[in-house]
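Recall the central idea of this unit: under ordinary conditions, the amino acid sequence of a chain determines the structure it adopts. In this exercise we apply that idea directly, starting from the sequence alone.
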Amino acid sequence: MMKEVKGMSNRRKRLVSVLALLTMTAGLFAGVAGCKKDEGNTKGGAKDTIVIATMSETPSLTPNEHSAVAGTYMNLLTYESLLYRDMDMKLQPCLAESYKNISDTEWEFKIRKGVKFHTGEEMTVEDVKASLDWAQNFPLIKTNTENIKQVDIIDDETIKITTFEPCAVILENLAANGNAIVPKKLIDAGNNFNENPIGTGPYVFKEWKMGDSLTFEAFEDYWDGEPKIKNMIWKIIPEGSSRTIALEAGEIDFIVEVEQMDIDRLENNEDVKVYKYEATDYNCMQLNHEYGYFGDPLVRHAINAAINKENVVTVAANGLGTPVKTQTPANLDGCSEENADDYDVEKAKQYLEEAGVNPADINFSIICSNDMKKRAGEVIQADLKKIGINCTLESMDLATYLSATTEGNFSASIGGTNSSSQIGYCKYLFHSDSIGGANRARMVDSKVDSLIEEAMVTLDEDEHREVMEELNAYLNELCVHIPLWQPIALRAYNAKLKGVEINALGTLYFKDCYWEE
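Accordingly, the structure predicted from this sequence is:
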């Protein structure tokens, strides 16, 4: 029997739920926005500009040439995919008006009519097929594309997507920004989407001042209604306290990455709203298994047991987080604490003895791309010194950090990832196919690959969970990375900004934000 899910004309309304069996995520994406405090920039008595401060500059405006959250923030302004995730973390129709599951490997999508690209031309099924085919050429997003066998045009409003085998994450893949829909004409013409990011999204790209800011303007012909705030400016402000000061001074209106050390003063400011939510974000120290002694799981366990995660949370995140000891986010279904390490300095020393490694011979550098990571690194550095391991801290901007860790030109780094499912997280970080992408451990383990692949085709919810729990216990046994903490996520913004709603992935559809009159 075929089951159909239809979308309403306005995404701000509650839409019907998608198939329960297939609401596990593989796409890793997030977005945010806010609005500008320029009293002179008004229209009809209300401000029409928003200025958003973010810590890191996007590595690219092309939706499938990066795996960075900073890039996804930008992509969600200008591009859209067939599906999107709502505030309850459920997948909903977007550029697809409805869809139906034909068989274990076939899906039909009815494409929304009347959707225009920023060029003014109407989106067609030819654009959809061309975009999904085009996305297959980008290695950094292959976890979102590799399950698609082919895309066929059925008629002028219908496409069929066929997967190689039953795929528990195909809907998640189609919601990812890497599978954004762009004009076929521009693909065929070799358009540089980094310089000319044309899509169907609610905002049109205007200007990028490298290292300083990006400017966007509301798309008047946006299919779901023109955004309420006309102008948008994203300011690149790497230093946390500088972002706080800029918000307090009214120079910006929204902070994406709130400096945890400033939370008390922001909460005591009546002109500022602080939004807190439990996110699926997960922070760890990533170890390159091709470097030095890091290929030995006993050495990795020694490092893990030696670090006081409670202190890491206190120092790095001002206590706004939960220490973790598992290899995946604890609030995602399928996580297991089996084989996970507790904080135990004597046990750490024992691991090193079993490995037959002199701790003085373990020397490495930890890459940190922001102040919070550097604070975490300082705790790690002090804890490891207690068991005779010396390490140094190295600061890098995000783009350089991503390049070095993706290519394997590092020994250790502090990084973070978010996802809305265990299978999405594990496929992205631990499968050998992700080496050169998010598998920064550069780990190749046939059992890990096999369990991930089994989970990918297991559609029964209970059976899927069992496979994921077995995989998680084995990942803890391997101690792939050094788990640190899951943050209590924060956003801070001008109290006159309304319509702010954020889901557990950190996504805010800023087109629904507006200024209080």
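The longest helix spans residues 461-478.
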